[in-house]
Amino acid sequence: MPKRQARKLLSKPSNLPDNRLIHFTIQMIHQHIFASPRPGMSEQEFQDYWRYVHAVQYAIPIPQVRKYKIDCAIELRNTYNPMAYSGLAEIWLKNDEEQAESLQTPEYLEGAKKDERKWAAAWQTLVLDTYSSLLHENTVQNREQQEYKLLVLLKRREDQSLDQFRQHLLTDNARLARNIPGLIRNLCCFTRDRYYTNGAEPFFDYVGHFSTTSFLGLKEMIGSKEWQGAMHADFLAIADPWIHACMTVRSEWIIGPEPRG
Question: What is the pTM of this model?
Answer without folding.
Answer: 0.89
